[in-house]
Amino acid sequence: MNSTQMDLSAVDTYLSRHLPGYQGPIEATKFAIGQSNPTFLLTTPKSTYVLRRKPPGTLLKSAHAVDREFRVQTALADTAVPVPKMYLLCEDKTVIGSDFYVMEHLDGRIFLEPTMTGESNETRTAVLDEMNRVLADLHDVDIAAVGLSDFGPPGNYFERQIARWIKQYRASETSHIPEMDALIDALEGSVPQDDGQRTLVHGDYRIDNLMFEKDGTRCIGVLDWELSTIGHPYADLAAVIMQWRMPPGTEGRGLAGIDRASLGLPSDQAFIDQYCQRRSLPGIENFGFYLAFNFFRMGSILQGVFKRAEDGNASDPERAKILGSYVPMFAKHGLEALED
């Protein structure tokens, strides 16, 4: 974590007035991971909290919706999906210059990549099984019962999402990328018929957005809900497989070329089958489309990260530029997925 500049006096005053049990003074450090909504560890003499805020500067419309993150995690508090406890949401921009929320600080561990270097095969197998379990439970949440029926608009989720991310991509475009244009055309012409599935979706479901207990394999928190909405569950499932198609290591964080069996890791199909079994599904047709959609969306997200670096608003400018350079690769993978 890195130290950060934030008006801690304003935060301290606000929390003293609005957060029961809070006692300052306060210190803050910024978590190094995360490019979208800056996240901070708040430390007081007696407690620790996590503060997540919108970034400063001019932002794309509908992006960085910390209010939605707060709402969905509050709604999931009593479900089988583990989330941190939400304490408060501040939409008064005069406090620190942007909306923010404060939540529980979970004391666990995050695996930055699915190879989980240094762990035993038993741990790797159990962690990915738990990742699969949580995803299936997420998609089985009764959205009406938890008050999230209006958390996303009706209609074909993929048509809606493709249109949204085309707009986001065009708004962030800094140079012409032929592969992205080709992928956009291909996706618009191959959207499956709506099969009626309408569930809560996380929008960025991957292993480094999950926190596990320190000495075990139980998931204690699903993090980073910025892209969550009501939509189609296969988008989340395909997001996992998309990540695994990336190169291994700290940049790609994938499993491409890895001998998975030797590490206790499931194949793509085994993970999909496990998920289908948990949700009593017969299988998934045309999975290549869902995979291609995720490659396109991630390419659009990375283009946005790069644009923020160009504009001087990125949380970590140098890393943002590196991530932005991967956009053509994601587009190429998306086109290949459509041919699977």
Tell me the series of helices and strands, N- to C-terminal: EHEEEHEEHHHEEEEHHHHHH
**What separation lies between the terminal Cα atoms?**
41 Å
State the CATH class of the largest domain. Answer: Alpha Beta
Give the mean pLDDT: 92
Instruction: Note the quaternary state here.
Output: single chain
The tally of domains stands at 2
Under the CATH scheme, the architecture of the largest domain is Alpha-Beta Complex
Structural class: alpha+beta
Please state roughly what percent of the residues sit in beta strands, choosing from under 5%, 5-15%, 15-25%, 25-35%, 35-45% or over 45%. Answer: 5-15%
Rg from Cα: 20 Å
Coarse shape = globular
The CATH topology label of the largest domain is: Aminoglycoside 3'-phosphotransferase, Chain: A, domain 2
The main sheet comes to:
6 strands, antiparallel
CATH superfamily of the largest domain: Aminoglycoside phosphotransferase (APH), C-terminal lobe
User: Biggest sheet: strands side by side, in what order?
Assistant: 1-2-3-4-6-5
Low-confidence stretches: none
Number of strands: 10
- The total count of helices amounts to 11
How would you characterize the overall build of this protein?
Keywords: Transferase. This is Aminoglycoside phosphotransferase. This protein is of the alpha+beta class and 340 residues long. Helices cover 41% and strands 12% of the residues. It contains eleven helices and ten strands. A hairpin with an 8-residue loop joins strand 2 and strand 3. The chain starts with a strand and ends with a helix.
Any key phrases for this structure?
2 domains, 10 strands, Aminoglycoside 3'-phosphotransferase, Chain: A, domain 2, alpha+beta, 11 helices, globular, 340 residues
